[in-house]
Amino acid sequence: MAKVRSYRDLLVWQRAIDLAAAAYELSRAYPRDELFGLTSQTRRAAASIAANIAEGYGRSTKPAYLNFLRIAQGSLKELETHLILAERIRVTPSGSIDGLLGDADELGRMLNSLISKLRSHAAR
């Protein structure tokens, strides 16, 4: 296992970046009248996941890191909600979000695992 020297070495951050890129790609096809609505909200939530993982990593304490990981979890749920809404109101075709939701589920499990590990190490 390679040594983690930066948040960029974390697989959870790499997957968050991949998910954000996929969300940006999907939202390119949203109607122009959603540019300042659902498009913007989807992109902000998607970018926020990786940004909070990185920001937490850069904090000097484990409690602060854990807090930012929890915020990343919230942003992940926000992204899922925007994707589901986009499909429900037919901004994106039915089935077009399935892969992203699967990736989001996996990322959520990864975040939970990292949080659990950090909490167990903090308790020692």
List its salient traits.
0% strand; 124 residues; mainly alpha; 4 helices; de novo design (two linked rop proteins)
Short note summarizing the structure:
With 124 residues, the protein is mainly α. Helix content is 74%, strand content 0%.
Describe the SSE topology.
Elements (H helix, E strand, L loop, with lengths): L10 H17 L7 H23 L4 H27 L9 H25 L2
Helix pairs in contact: 1-2, 1-4, 2-3, 3-4
Structure characterization notes:
The protein is mainly α. The protein has one domain: Up-down Bundle (de novo design (two linked rop proteins)), CATH 1.20.1440. Helices cover about 75% and strands about 0% of the residues. It is elongated, with a radius of gyration of 15 Å. The chain starts with 10 loop residues before the first helix and ends with a helix. About 30% of the residues are buried.
